[in-house]
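Q: How would the structure tokens look for this protein?
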Amino acid sequence: MRRSALAAGAFAAAALFAQAAAAEPVVLEGQCFCKLGSEKAGYKLIVALTDANREAMRKLIEAGGVDLGKSITLKGKGCDPNAWPHKRYKAKCGQTSIFKRSADGKETWKSVDNSEHTGAVTVRIFANGGIPVGARTPAGLPIVDAKRWPGAASFSVMGRVAK
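A: Here is the predicted structure in token form.
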């Protein structure tokens, strides 16, 4: 009985430590930093995966650092096509599509240009992409798919500045 109480206490202490550490947003630096044209407070960061950062990015992802709803500081200097892992990013920040449905049921789509951004912005994550994950742990943390991860060229994180 005493062992289980000690184990529970150690687990609670570890959880508090992790929670305290999570209070400070992580800074994620990328190769293409964009302000979304679809909303004033929206940003997107594309991170190229390299031999130098792949393990650190895996640890960040598996710790839940880029999960939806998390706060994170995105940092970059616009877009550097020379640092991008594949050719599709030659369009730099590209466009965002805006979908609307009117009261009469008519659907409209509009494309707006995104723009390059320089600096650092703390956001709450509303989307991420390009992350090859498998099942989650019992605690709900993502697990990177070991077979697909080595071939992943980049991933993206999108978020809005919290009001």
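The chain has two helices and eleven strands.

The chain has a mean pLDDT of 83.

Upvote if useful.
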